[in-house]
Amino acid sequence: MKILFVAAECAPFAKVGGLGDVVWALAKALRELGVDVARFIPKYRGVEDEIELAEVGELSITMGGGPCHCRILKGTHPKGGSIYFLDYPPYFDRAGIYGERG
After folding, report:
1. Which of 9, 52, 72, 86 has fewest C-beta within 10 Å?
2. Tens of pLDDT, residues 39-87
3. CATH number of the domain within which 16 lies
4. Which domain holds residue 63?
């Protein structure tokens, strides 16, 4: 079985409340049971300082009346497996995840 968690947060890379912890811990627990698990979150500012990333693809979608050209990056955490990041700086290169600056 393969499972992909898609979320706005995943500890330790993006964590504001409990969501980031749950996404990390649930995926880790399933992985320990032999399930092929990966996570997919936005690439917020500073992620590249915490994990080595490699570009594995591109994605173009139409949003807000125009095209958004995104990169898909992949990192591997020794304790957590594969983590994919959606890199679109106009949306995610910011100081906070939510709220006034996010």
Report:
1. 52
2. 999 999 999 998 999 999 999 999 888 999 999 999 998 887 899 999 9
3. 3.40.50.2000
4. 2-92
